[in-house]
Design goal:
- With 418 residues, the protein is α/β, with parallel strands linked by helices.
- It contains four helices and 30 strands.
- It is 11% helix and 23% strand.
- The strands form five sheets. It has a 16-stranded mixed β-sheet, with no helix packed on it. Strands 19-21-23-25-27-29 form a six-stranded parallel β-sheet, with no helix packed on it. A four-stranded parallel β-sheet has the order 3-5-7-9, with no helix packed on it.
- The longest helix has 24 residues, at 2-25.
- It is elongated.
Length: 418
């Protein structure tokens, strides 16, 4: 541990001296801004829309170049937006001379290579969007020295390595989006110290180990998406203390244990999605007795057992209820018909029994009903034809004890999957 810390400290000190020396050597001004942008232009391999061919001319003030915005006070480059123009290029070392840069948006291009260390000189940078490119290499530890950063979006690239612990220095950070890279290691505990963090997206990486308990300290967090990794262990009870949470999405990991009841006390929660884990236990009888979930409850492909709690009917604004591929038993409670905003009801591949509550067909906005592979019995009513006119998909295959389907005419049968 001491060796690791010493190595990190040496890197930090080296970077600090590098940055100070570079600052002393280069006196930046509007001319060095121009040279930095021309260096970027010289790196461009492909510009199919000819976005920069004519606009970026040394004969014209760079403050009038397309994608460039200068500050009114210092007449230095304040913002650079080259998004969505299909450029193939690299970021040159001279980029570090854009010392008045506040916003950098290069999303949806074909930028390649590593981020140059000289970018650590962009100490005024608040907004950084490099998403949907082909950047590679480790996530730079010098991000942690850009103390004014509010948004880092580097999703859909080829970044590797671990999340640097130096991120703890970015107290102003509000959005951290690292989705769909090849990031390894653990979610660092220091993420919980980012007191202004509102959005944390780590989907589609190679993260391992457990969800750090310290995440519960990020009290302003509204969106947490850490799906499609290899996270293990329990969902921390402390997640329920994040009272500003709206989207809690932890799908397709290797989580075990029970679902913490505390998350249903989050007053602003809109979506809870734990699909594709190994969570087990009974669904709490008091589910939704507190604060209703507004949009979606996704618990499919887990190991939940026992009865479906009637208290789910208290989630009155729920639009999607997905409990498929679990070990749920008993009857489907008729109280589900109180979910008047429901659009999707997915209960297939369980062991539900008893009769199908016809009350659910009174939900006017219901479009998809998935009940296949259960033990539901009884008969469908004669009025089924008029009921099904609003249903887009009705999955009933392998319900051998359910009768009455012969009453449904052919125009409606096309919406059914047996």
């Amino acid at each position: 541990m001491e060796k690791t810390f010493s190595s990190f400290l040496l890197i930090v000190l080296s970077l600090f001296h590098y940055v100070m020396a570079s600052s002393a050597m280069t006196q930046t001004n509007i001319t060095t801004d121009q040279l930095a942008l021309l260096a970027l232009k010289s790196q461009i391999v492909s510009d199919p829309s000819h976005f920069l061919d004519e606009s970026w001319s040394p004969a014209t003030s760079i403050c009038h170049w397309v994608g460039v915005t200068c500050g009114s006070r210092h007449q230095r480059v304040k913002s650079l937006n080259l998004s969505n123009v299909a450029l193939t290029s690299r970021i040159p070392r001279e980029f570090g001379n854009l010392t008045f840069l506040v916003s950098l948006d290069l999303k949806s291009n074909n930028f390649q290579g590593n981020l140059p260390q000289e970018m650590a000189l962009l100490r005024r940078l608040k907004f950084l969007d490099l998403s949907f490119n082909n950047f590679r290499g480790a996530i730079p530890s010098w991000f942690g020295f850009l103390h004014q950063l509010q948004v880092i979006n580097i999703r859909n690239n080829s970044f590797t390595g671990s999340i640097p612990s130096s991120f703890s220095n970015m107290s102003t950070l509000e959005t951290l989006n690292l989705n769909f890279n090849s990031i390894e290691g653990q979610i660092p505990k220091v993420i919980g110290s980012l007191i202004n963090l509102r959005e944390l997206r780590l989907r589609g990486n190679k993260l391992i180990a457990s969800i750090p308990l310290s995440l519960s300290n990020a009290s302003k967090l509204e969106t947490l998406d850490i799906s499609f990794n290899s996270l293990q262990g329990n969902i921390p009870e402390g997640i329920g203390n994040l009272h500003n949470m709206k989207l809690l999405v932890i799908q397709a990991n290797q989580l075990t244990g029970s679902m913490p009841f505390t998350i249903f006390n989050i007053s602003r929660i809109e979506v809870i999605a734990f699909t594709g884990n190994s969570l087990s236990g009974n669904l709490p009888n008091g589910l939704c007795n507190g604060i209703p979930i507004h949009k979606g409850l996704y618990l499919s492909k887990n190991k939940f057992y026992g009865h479906m709690p009637a208290s789910l009917s208290n989630c009155s604004q729920l639009q999607v209820l997905s409990l498929s591929e679990n070990d749920l038993t008993g009857e489907i409670p008729k109280e589900i018909s109180n979910l008047i905003e429901l659009e999707v009801l997915a209960l297939e591949i369980n062991s539900f029994s008893g009769s199908l509550p016809m009350e659910i067909f009174n939900i006017s906005g219901l479009r998809t009903i998935e009940l296949s592979m259960n033990n539901i019995s009884g008969s469908l009513p004669p009025i089924m034809c008029s009921i099904l006119l609003n249903i887009e998909k009705l999955y009933l295959w392998n319900l051998t004890n359910l009768v009455g389907l012969f009453l449904i005419p052919s125009p409606i049968v096309q919406n059914l999957l047996f």
